[in-house]
Amino acid sequence: MPYVNIKVTDEDVTVEQKNRLIKGVTDLLRDVLGKDPASTFVVIDEVALTDWGVGGMNVADWRARNS
Question: Looking at residue 47, what is its pLDDT?
Fold first, then answer.
């Protein structure tokens, strides 16, 4: 059974945006991979900007430095 885990930052992600992510994953599974979307778990995790990074810096610091 396919399992998809999407990570998004906690920057005001709306329910509509989450629904669109799930639809996109469903389309990918069905149209590209030939999988049955009904047997797929899609999990969306909201993560804080300080919990992951780019180039060895957390995202908040990276954005502050590069803006």
Answer: 82
Would residue 37 show up in a list of annotated catalytic residues for this protein? no
One of 2, 43, 52, 64 is an active-site residue; which one?
2
Global pTM? 0.60
pLDDT interval class at 50 (50, 70, 90) = confident
Integer CA distances (angstroms), 58 to 9, 27, 49, 50, 54, in order:
12, 32, 7, 5, 6
Residues making up the chain, counted from first to last = 67
**How far is residue 56's CA from residue 31's CA, in Å, rounded to a whole number?**
36
Query: Can you say how many angstroms the Cα of residue 3 is from the centroid of all Cα atoms in its chain?
Result: 13
